[in-house]
C-alpha cells in the first residue's frame, strides 16, 4: 500500500510555501519544503502560474498515486467551493470571484476533489491539533499574535476561523490591544522612548521596569480577552503562535495568574510546529480518515 502523502500549501500576501506531509507519521517529509515570493498585486495569470510552479516542484519526487493538495489561504474566501472573495485588502485583487480550485485543477491536472482549502488561521490550529501542541484536544482556541491578531477555534477536532480580531474589547477592538503596535504604543506612553517591536522589549525586560509593566499589562489584557471565550466554548487548551509568542515567558505569569484568579485552569501552550503548522494543518484536510 502506498504511503499516504499530501501536499500542504501556505499562501500569504507575499509568498507561497509548500511541503509534503506524511499523513501516517503526521510529519513534514524531509527536504520537501519549497518557497517562493509572489507579488499579490500581479495579474491572475502571474499569481496562479507562480503557485503552480511551486506546487509542481514540491510534488517532484512523488511519482505514483493520486496527488492531494491542502491549501491554507487568507480570507475572505469560499473554502468549500474554492472561490476567492478578497477585494479590499490590497492583495489578490485579480483573483476576486475567481474559482481558484478549478483554475489549479486545470493547470496541475489534479481533480478538484483532491484540492482542499482552509482558512490560514484555522490551518495553523488544525496543524497543532493534528500533530502539535494540541494533539488529542477536542476544544482548542488558537491565537497568532503579531502585527495583527489571528484567531481560530477547533471544536470536535475541526478548526475554523474565529475572526475575533475586531471583537469589542476595552476601549476599542481586540487587535488594538493584542498586537505589536500596542506594545510599541504602550511602552512609549509609559517611558517616552520608542522601540521598533516586541523583540526589543524582550531584550530589556530584565532591566527596564517600564518594559516589565508592559508585558504584565499585556498578560492581564490577554487573560481578560480569553476568559469569556474559554467559558463560552469550554476551551481546554489555548495555543499561542506568531512573533509575540516568542516573548511568552515575559507575559505568561500575569496571564496564568489572572486566569487562575478567575477559576480557569485551561492549558496555555506555545505552538510546537511554528511556521510549519499551517502546512501540516492544510495537508491534514486531505486525510480522509479524519472526521
Automatic annotation (TrEMBL):
Gene3D superfamilies: 3.30.420.40
Superkingdom: Bacteria
UniProt cross-references to Pfam families, sorted A to Z: ROK (PF00480)
Record InterPro entries: ATPase_NBD, ROK
Family indicated by similarity: Belongs to the ROK (NagC/XylR) family.
Protein name according to UniProt: ROK family protein
Origin species: Pedobacter kyonggii
Lineage: Bacteria, Pseudomonadati, Bacteroidota, Sphingobacteriia, Sphingobacteriales
